[in-house]
């Protein structure tokens, strides 16, 4: 690349460092407050250096017992959903880049339209639960609203349009490769960076989703991690705010509601942070493939 | 004759239709079938009538959106914030992606790239508590640890309007830049390095090679993302405008968007028809704008148009 | 071309939705048929009903407890029940789905009012059913049953709770004792008097905020005020419903004066600068030694209840005599599309009156999920607690129809009945406001309130400047229309109940 650019490198490093501090600072507050005693935060605010340590929020979360099971459910669903979703997305995106394909405009419109209009929760819920009977099955976590998303399709399409050289495809066709062969053996390997990107975005959607679990799952064995955490949180909040003396006998005094929020955020995002470097590897790979293709 | 050639053409392309089929079927079931629910926007829903048999009330459900004295304020806020988010967000994401892409040290690249993604992993509710940790009047970090040592009077952020446009924009960028920038990064990493070398040999400086090589490669993605955001221009991230300002009444004038107005108006009445009407209104505006944007792009460069 | 696309898509969507529609109406018809058949062969076989409700309690052993409940109810009324229990978090998000009639619900708990159920036609008209099968409920609830009535039609049964209350001050009794303020506290008669105590606490306990709001920024501070709010604050009866004149609360002297007191406290630093965005409830703040007092709903049991939930010794001062008003915070309704309305009503009555069932549903099976201590109060089994026991639902339809838990006030049941039956009653007791005709105004009024109400009622806004602004904005949003509508409905209600 550009030769004499130590100056640029230093400035770029500096800017990135400042940005990262902006990002890390609130996160440090988050982590520190999740291990501080609730009373300290309520009285004197959040602090970077906890005056004393208190893991009761984590004890409460892990005390529920089912948390590891829920992790397992979410990881399984995330992996399956991401793989299936990415395959469906890349296939239709590739179709949308084929020059001269009859009906291409219609399909694009068909895809885009789903992003603009939505029938709302009640009709979807009725359909999925009364016609497809997916309540309390693992499909309820995988399919409704998450599997395929027009946003991902359209950005993948613009990547394909821009970065897959038409000549390679033409010569492969000359060699007598089938269209499926071309797609899986040539197009996909050339698209590793975008696959990693939408894969990550999809994984993030699956990982963070708790609404499907909320609406379609009542069986405890199928509750995902975010739904479980979200439930703990809303329960704790409800109990803390409830003035209706007559309805609650259970002792609410022991639930740490403030630090619990923070601990829940940490517990919820930790696995994704661990998982991310795995995705990141493919950005580097994308570079080398890109270098070969020209 | 014309029809025949279409069929013939279509036959030739059958593998592509097969590839598009799974997603098309999925959209049909997941999105198009429930769209029947849009009819709720024109009904007074009752259990016995169901979605299709309830009493039709015409445009009655839409009235609350326009009657209010806030109608202008909420529309203005929604539009202006979204414009800043679209323009600023694109520039910022490309800028950060470019810096990351050009960094030579692989280790710092890896670290920075991971770190900037963290905020995207947090739910907006948690973000609102972090913002509160920084901004609170008595216990907030900014007032206690930054302004107080400097001898500056504490600022009561949650009751002063002037800060909020900046705070909301900052929080939004803080949260989404990481995820947006990996998209551009993916596109940048696909650019043939040979092009840069050639440009370098021709004596192009960094700015020129960015302008002539990197940017053109990003144009399709920029266009796609912008068109899609334009379609959502009447929508807003509810959490950002409701949770982050902690539902503070004093700053409603600069935090009210269509979504928060609908929420505040309907939280006690949970009227299905009226919330459907609000969604429908946002969608129709978005739809029209996308069609206009697409028509303009088509005129300028056919290749980059959506359809 | 574009137009064609749109029309193709719309047709596709229509066809698809018709498919959904067909499936739906078919099941509806079937349901109707089965319903009439079931009515005829009612006595012969056991009817099964599903009851949906939220609870924060433990329910791992649900099946076993239900078996025990059903044994009794099968024999007594020929009904078997199944409880579908949701966590509170899940409940509030799913409630609208239950109301839309998509779920197989027979009987439903309503938290925070049942008006939405009525306006969506989801609540069954139980006017006749309750006469036939709900005698125990009628006898116990008396006048209070009217809270479940709109326009002369009974839709809901309110749980038997504490109906008589007024605004009061809730405070840390232990702090008062520690600072020797007991005598001064005993003399507090109104809100202004409290200032002296706040000043003393501020001086002695710099870490503790003397005054906070009750539920943070989620509800206005005067939610439980001296007036009968008739369902919402748009048109109220002052002095707990002394007369049936619906007035604009925000224009009353009392309201301005209360806001003034709170603003004074705010300026003097007895409350936090961020009081209007306070995120935590009084309970949480008290648990963490961060708050001294608040104002809120107060009755005979408040001090006791708050002591339990805050884990501190708490006191309460009533600022006026308790008044009974319409109560519909927690009610049970029967779903309009159920096939088992009679069975539901029978079971509701049984749950209301049969102590054995009441205990089973609340606490489970004696000896297995709870035990009685020497005072005859319930407690967890030895070695168990709230988190390890396998059943402790806590839900009840009548608070007198069960044994008391060890953390409760031992005399609660007797005192509750006494308080409910002897209390002064609002002129509009039992009136529920039907907002259908003024929905548009209410969406706007709610928006205006979100701008001013929390700020004014917590004291953060100066009423001198902001109260007139608030009132003007409310009038612009149509407050007078709503008040007129309310007055009309109140008059009709009173005429019908003469």
Summarize the structure in short:
Chain A is mainly alpha-helical. Chain A has helices at residues 6-34, 38-44, 56-63, 67-95, 104-116, 121-131, 139-142, 150-163, 166-174, 179-190, 192-208, 211-216, 225-241, 257-293.
Describe the fold and architecture:
Chain A: It is found in: Cell membrane. Chain A: It comes from Anaerobium acetethylicum. Chain A: It holds the Pfam family BPD_transp_1. Chain A: Belongs to the binding-protein-dependent transport system permease family. Chain A: Residues 71-279 form the ABC transmembrane type-1 domain. The complex is a heterotrimer of chains A (294), B (307) and C (498). Chain A is mainly α. Chain A folds into 2 domains: 1-54, no CATH class; 63-293, MetI-like (MetI-like fold), CATH 1.10.3720.10. Chain A contains 14 helices and no strands. Chain A has helices spanning 6-34, 38-44, 56-63, 67-95, 104-116, 121-131, 139-142, 150-163, 166-174, 179-190, 192-208, 211-216, 225-241, 257-293. The longest helix of chain A is centred in the last third of the chain and has 37 residues, at 257-293. Chain A is globular and about 70 Å long. Chain B has a domain at 70-126 and 174-304: MetI-like fold, CATH 1.10.3720.10. The two termini of chain B are 25 Å apart. Chain B has 15 helices and 2 strands. Chain B is flat. A two-stranded antiparallel ribbon of chain B has the order 1-2. With 307 residues, chain B is mostly helical. Chain C has 2 domains: 43-162 and 325-433, 3-Layer(aba) Sandwich (D-Maltodextrin-Binding Protein, domain 2), CATH 3.40.190; 164-324, 3-Layer(aba) Sandwich (D-Maltodextrin-Binding Protein, domain 2). Chain C is 46% helix and 14% strand. Chain C has helices spanning 2-40, 62-77, 88-99, 115-119, 127-133, 135-141, 173-178, 182-186, 194-204, 238-241, 253-267, 282-287, 302-310, 341-353, 355-363, 412-422, 439-458, 463-476, 479-496; strands at 47-54, 58-59, 79-86, 107-111, 149-150, 153-154, 156-158, 164-172, 209-211, 291-298, 314-318, 323-324, 330-334, 371-372, 378-379, 391-392, 424-425. In chain C, helix 2 (62-77) runs antiparallel to helix 15 (355-363), helix 5 (127-133) crosses helix 6 and helix 17 runs antiparallel to helix 18 (463-476). The longest helix of chain C is centred in the first third of the chain and has 39 residues, at 2-40. Chains in contact: A-B, A-C, B-C.
